[in-house]
Each structure stands twice: as C-alpha cells, then as structure tokens.
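Extended Data, record Solute:Na+ symporter, SSS family
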Amino acid sequence: MATSDLLVQLGVVGVYLVVSLAVGVVAYRLTSRDAEDYYLASRSLGTVVLLFTTFATLLSAFTFFGGPNLAYSAGPEWILVMGLMDGVLFAILWYAVGYRQWLIGRNRGYVTLGEMLGDRFGSKRLRALVAGVSIFWLFPYVMLQQMGAGEAIVGLTEGIVPYWAGAALITVFMIIYVVLAGLRGVAWTDTIQGLFMLSIVWVAVAWVVTSAGGLSTISASMADNTPEFLALGGGLYSPEWMISTAVTIAFGVIMFPQINQRFFVAKDDRVLKRSFALWPVLVLLLFVPAFLLGSWAAGLGVQVAEGSNVVPALLNEYTPVWFAALVVAGAMAAMMSSSDSMLLSGSSYLTRDLYRPFLNPTASDEREGWVARLGVAAFATLSFVASLFRPGTLIEVGDTAFGGFAQLALPVMVALYWPKTTRSGMFAGVGGGQAFYLLHVFLPEVTVGGTTLFGATYFGWDFALWGMALSLALTVGVSYLTPAAAGEDAGTFAVGSRAD
C-alpha cells in the first residue's frame, strides 16, 4: 500500500474521532455535576435521540464485523436472526420490560437496575449480585469493541498498522470521551453516529454493486462460487441454532447496562412508545446491507486473511481508498458508540450499587463522579490488555456476553410482573442461571455414562437457552415456596396509568 493511501485512511479515521471528541467537550460544558444528569441526562431524551442512542449503542464490532464475517463463511441467513427476529423480539421486550421500568424509575428516581431490584427486595446483596454479574459480562463486550477496532485497522491498512495500535486508539478515545461527556454527550454523539452509519453502509452497498457490475453479476458469481447461499436453509445454520441465538441475543440485550438504563431516560411515555415501534425498521435498514456485504464478498471470491475482517477487504477491492476508510470510520463509530455507553453504564453500576452501599454511603455526588471516572479508565485499560490475547472470534466473544446477560432477563421480568416474587427466588434464579451458564462457558465437555455434560447444545438447543429456562424455574419455584422476607416491598413496583 502506498504511503499516500495510508495517510488518507488514517486521516479520515482520525478526523472522525476528533469530531466526536469535540461533541463530548461541548456536552461536558452543558452537563451538570449531579449524578442523575451525568448518568441519565436528567431523564429528558426525546424520540429521535433516544431511538438513535439505543440504535448506535447496540451497533458494535459484533454488527459491523462479526455478522458480515459469519455471513461470509456461512451465508446470509444471519440476516433473519439479527435483522428480523431480533429486531421484532427486542421491540416487544422494550415494551414489556422498558415501559414498566420507565414508570417505576420515574416514580422512584432509580438510576440502575440493581438499585431498583435492591429497593424492591430490601437487599443490598441482591443489588450487588445484579451489578457484579452485569459488570462481569460487560467486560468481554467492551473487549469485543477493542478487538474489532484492532482488526479493522489491520484490514484497512493491509497490516501496516498493527492490531494493538487500533485497539489502543479506540481505548484512549473512549476513556477521554466518557470521562468528559456523560450520557448527554454520549446520546448526542450516538445520534450523529447512528445517522452516519446508516447512510454510509447503504452508500457502500450501492458502490460495491456498481463496481462489481450490478446485482445480476453478483448473483451469478454467488451461484457459481457459493450456490448454497442462494437457498433458504442452504447455509450452515440449523433452525434450533437460529432460534436459540435470536432469543438469547434479544433477552440479553435488554439486560445490557447501557440498554437497560435507557429505559429510564425517556422524557415521557410517548417518546418510549414511538421508539420501540420504530426500532425494527431501523434495525433492518442497517443489518440487511451490512450482512449482504459479507455474503457478496464470498460470492465474489474476495480473499480475507486469517484473523481479518471481510468488510475492509471487500471495500479495498471495490471502492476508493478514501471511501473504504470512511466506512471503517463508520464501523469505529459503531464500536465507540457502544463502548462509551458501556463504560458509562458500568461506572454507574460500580458507584451506585457497589461503592455507595458498601464502601461510602455518604459520598458526595462529586466524589461519586470521580470514582466513576477512575473506574472507567481502569475497566477500559484492563479490557484492552485482555483484547491483546484475542480469546476468540468477534462472534464467539459477543455471543458469550449476550448469553451471560440473557440469564438475568427472566428473573427480572418475573419480579416486574409477579408481586409474589421473593428475595430468595431472585437469588435462586439469578445465581442458578449464572452458575449453569458459567460452567458451560469455562468447563470442557465431559461424558458420564454416555451423557454429555457441559455440552454446547442439548437436543440441538444452545445451552444458554436451557440456562434461561432454569433461571425462570428457580425464580418462580423458590418464590412460590418461600415467604417474603423483612424489608421486601411489592408495592415498590406498583404502577398505574400514564397519569401516575
């Protein structure tokens, strides 16, 4: 690669990051120093900003690189999982969980999920358990963004800039950004990034189609090189895998701290309802073109180096240098918009659910803010170090995090809707589901008497789905068998009409 091309590529990415940082500086000047404004933008977001900050927060290295990579190797049916099934499922869950959580949060002033559950069940230990589990599974997903950034820079520059440099670049920027901006700045930048990503990926599709000779040429190439991609069910996916993946991702997403906290921030209920109604449309508009690019690359015979991503390789072959860099900047936008929100939410869980209750209950807002900022820097640095070891592919790392969060979802939903849920039931459901899932993630498969333990699937269904079923059974069963403990208050979750 020519030096001039390299400078153009790095310049485009660098300019984008500097513009994002400038937005953060402006937001810092407008954000007050109290915790609710820093974490939740004073619960004042409108429809466009709420929709796009949620959209941009969910879009990550998993979307821009992991999904297209999978489509490249196994076919375009991944679109059905992420673009259609998850778009609709998450919209339904946004209503079922998000609307009720918004009502409760507005009435009680909650900032985190752990704070809400701890108050309902009168338990600091439950609050800490939910926060600890959330921060634990947040770690691999932050690491995923750093891995994606490193791989993106390697693919864009054809290996001239090393993997660690790309990962370090996004780490430094996201630390500075989150320390400065708070949710108000994150939301503003997410809106800009969401619009930018949505536009640039469709331009990329049009450019590739034009450069490759049109859709008919691409279809003919796919028929010759990857004919199995052209028939539903012809790829490497099984129905059980697709359903399991769609369910665990959708339920996992609603428990991601950066998503769950957005259930608290809508200005009013109309904003919330408009947002989840528009959500499936927005998801399809991004996921379909992104995953088509991966499938087309396979059909067109684009070669992707081991450990690299397909999108930069495809764009380097069919678009100009500057445009390929612009699309990678869009991908970096996706990664940064996910990372900044994750770090901000993770810091709120650290300070509100662990630091204040157990270490310093009388801490001032200013002191809490500094603890949060130091936590952001430490968390991002540790995840960067872990990302250098590349413990799996982007899909594997992301899927592991989704499954871990999914184990929280059903106990929380039971607590939100069933007044007879008890503290013991919550501990059993959350703890049991997590224990089952962790054993399957970290222990190797063993066979005892012809029966496989800790396998990837049971009867064809992913173990994460079985863990969710176990968490539901334990929450309901133990709650049914145990009385409410002292300090529990079912009335905490009582909500009424929109006028409440």
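Summary. The first helix runs from residue 3 to 30.
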